[in-house]
Every structure is written in C-alpha cells, then in structure tokens.
Amino acid sequence: MLSEEQSQKHITTGSGDLNGILGGGIHCKEVTEIGGVPGIGKTQLGIQLAINVQIPVDYGGLGGKAIYIDTEGSFMVERVYQIAEGCISDIMEYFPCHHDKSSSGQENLQPESFLAGIYYFRICSYTEQIAVINYLEKFLGEHKDVRIVIIDSVTFHFRQDFDDLALRTRVLCGLSLKLMKLSKSYNLAVVLLNQVTTKFTEGSFQLTLALGDSWSHSCTNRLILYWKGNERCAYLDKSPSLPVASTPYAVTSKGVRDAGSSSCKRVRVM
Q: Residue limits of the RecA family profile domain (predicted)?
C-alpha cells in the first residue's frame, strides 16, 4: 500500500503554490471537496482539472480523460477552449525540444483533442444526478481511461428541491460512498464542487460550506476558496496526510495559475 501511494501520480491544478499545499496536486483514489463563494473560481478550477488530467504521460501528466457533471449550467465550452490553449502553450514552453521531436504529440496537443477528452453530462434535477452517479460504474467500465470525475456542483439541486433534510443527508452520504468506491476501484480522482451557506455560530452568522457537518465526513480532502482583500486564496481545511495550509492563487485568461503570474484584482460593483 505504501509503494502504491508513493508511486501515485497527481493531477496538477495549474498553480505550483496550490499543488504545494495539496501534496503535488489532486490525488487519484480520493474524493476532494472544493468549496467557496460565488465568483471565487470553483468552476474555473474544475475545468482546469478536466484539461490537465489529459496532459500526455510524456509531458508529466496522466494522459487520461475526464467526466464533467454540470448541475448549474456554468460549463462554457469557449472558456474550456481558452484553458486548453493555455495548457498547450505551457507544455510547449516547458518541453520545447521534446515537442519538436514528437509528431504524434503535436497531433494530440490541439484544443479540439482536449475538448474531445471531456465526457459532459448536463443535470437538471436531483433525480437525474442520482441516476447519473449510479450509471457511472457501467460508464467507467467501458471507458477505462477516465482519471477524474468532477461534479459542479454537488449541492445545487439538493438545496433547491429537497425539503426532508434527514433524507437528503442519507441520500447524499450514499452517493458519496459510491463515488469513493469508484475512485478506488478505477484509480481516479473525484472532485466535488460545493456552495456556501450561512451558519449561526457564537452569536453571529458565518459563511460555511453547504450540506452541514455530516457531509464534511464524506470527502477525503477539503479545500476552501476565499477572498483575502482583492486576492484569491485557497485553504486546505481537511486532509488525512497533509497539514492545514493556505496559499494565494489567480484565475487568468489561461486558467488557474500562481498569484504572482497575474495582476488581476477583484472588481467591486457598487
């Protein structure tokens, strides 16, 4: 087991600092929850991971494919194309000699090939979400090159349509257990994007991730994205093997990158 863990590859986030607090990137065989306020970059990070998982093995990636389950309708193909172009330009910058020699690599390093490597599911209700997650095992059995499953977001329909909170918790925990089993059986990463809600604690309302405390036990790792003034930051709130840590990051035209690589500031609309 130790040997397997040490040889396990990670999916890069696009930011070296973010990879640093995550122990190299997003881990396969684990469920990672990423939460934060609207506009912080959750979907951007989800799309970035769906692109980065496809980086060929020759260039240090996994050479896999992605499943993207979109419950909110925030998946924009034009933006995916931009992030794919950014990923390709980074590969060509870091591996100029390697890229020139590999003609097959040149054919694969096209934005269209990255788009073709994403299996996209649009979900319009919680019943569809349950059905798709139950269908995943059959789908993964037929597509063994999938290395990441992203759900954006896991909470949306369950917050809108569910009145029985106890039943909601049981259903979500059942789905989480199924996803955790799939991640280990098929050696892939599962990334669950989550929204925030308010919680009354010690006499004041505070922002916390949605679905309550019982849901927080359903994931292996938990990453919280937040604003620190005009700067985006990520905070590793939970991990079985890594210390609690935080780091700034940026969302640029090329995708998620280190904070120092962008001068983008938060714009406040009055």
A: 7-196
- State which residues form the domain around 35: 7-92+110-258
Residue pair 153/42 in contact (Cβ under 8 Å)? The answer is yes
Residue 98 domain flag? no
Count CA within 13 A, CB hemisphere, residue 82.
12
Question: Is residue 2, in this structure, part of any structural domain at all?
Answer: no
CATH number at residue 232: 3.40.50.300
Contacts of 130 (CB under 8 A, 6+ apart): 171, 175
Return the higher-pLDDT residue of 124 and 97: 124
Tell me the one-letter amino acid at 167. L
Is 205 in contact with 198 (CB distance < 8 Å)?
yes
Domain count across the chain: 1
- pTM of structure: 0.88
The answer to whether residue 25 is domain-embedded is: yes
Helix/strand/coil for 163: coil
Rg (CA), the chain: 18
Report in angstroms the alpha-carbon separations of 94 from 1, 100, 179. Answer: 33, 12, 34
Q: Token pair 């139950």 is at which residue? A: 134
What is the identity of the amino acid at 166?
Answer: A
